[in-house]
Amino acid sequence: MNDDKQILLTIENLVVDYVTHGGTVHAATGVDIQLKPRQTLGLVGETGAGKTTTAKAIMNLIPDPPGVIREGKIVLDGVSIFDINKEKREVLPATQMQHIRGNLVSMIFQDPMTSLNPVLTVGEQIREVIAVHHPELGSGEAYARAKEMLELVGIPGERAGEYPHQFSGGMKQRVVIAIALACTPKLLIADEPTTALDVTIQAQVLELIKKLQKQNDMAMLMITHDLGIVAEVCDEVSVMYAGGIVEHGTLEDIFERTQHPYTEGLFNSLPNIHERGASLKPIPGLMPDPTNLPQGCAFSPRCSYATEACRREKPRGRWISQTHFVACSAYDDPLFSIRRNSHE
User: Fold this and answer.
1) 247 and 33 in contact (C-beta within 8 Å)?
2) How far apart are CA 117 and CA 268, in angstroms?
């Protein structure tokens, strides 16, 4: 529950479907998020939970077709990206949205290997972004600024004339970061930015993102399934499952006062570094088919605490403190608590 009026990003009841021949995929089922300036929010969950769909909705990049925003409201730095419900469908015009992308919000996509144009030099790709948002700059000035951006992410400016295939995976990701930050946005969305990189390079890229975020006073939405990354870079965490937020809180709330059975399952399935012989405790079963979500709680088929009521009715979300939210019907019983394994 956030009483602070200084909010950079607000997402209210985001509902997104993908209509396919195989059925309608329910990718986001009522997502609510708030993010303050300079804050880092981790969006955590398994593959298919709806994390990237939420990010693309902020950028207004849901492909239509097959994507359909059924309902929801997104406001970024006072600008309404869209406000859609049964009575109205207000969407920011594409020309204005182009100005928002880059200036207010930028995104680092998952795979640096496919994020860059193979037939343009990296300097030209950064220059293009700068030229779109700063038409007052001449081509030479924009290119000079592109070289400065490369220097900022730790790549020598003279490499601006090289092509993506001449860079390693980690260097390509640095170029992608340079493109995302070229116009110093207020919000950076990092969608699994280290997935395709080896562990050593992952650490370097994360350090770079943290440094540049602080330098540029940016807020960040870090999308990941890696709880280690969350612990390292995030202030608050939203845990996502089958298209909805099941738990939200500060880093301490989520890591030390875990409330939702799914979040408990994520932590319990981590290796125990103090007991090397201890067996892993994976969450049983699989994510539900997004074209055929369960009638009640989406997690109930995998939940050891599930009752008949859980399978019948959608859980009611509740704030259990000023900062901590959980969507779980088990808390209708005031004596209910989960069994979180200790890794200390």
Assistant:
1) no
2) 41
The pTM score is 0.91
Contact in structure between 126 and 175 (CB atoms under 8 Å): yes
Distance, CA of 121 to CA of 162 (rounded, Å) = 5
Q: Report the alpha-carbon distance of residue 264 to residue 59 in Å, rounded.
A: 31
- Beta-ladder partners of 89: 84
Q: What is the pLDDT of residues 27-44, one digit of tens each?
A: 999 999 999 999 999 999
Contacts of 276 (CB under 8 A, 6+ apart): none
Q: What sign results for the dihedral spanned by CA atoms 260, 264, 267, 270?
A: negative
Give the pLDDT of residue 5.
56
Q: Per residue in 211-228, pLDDT tens?
A: 999 998 999 999 998 898
Residues contacting 16, CB < 8 A, separation 6+:
27, 28, 50, 53, 57, 62, 67, 68, 69, 70, 72
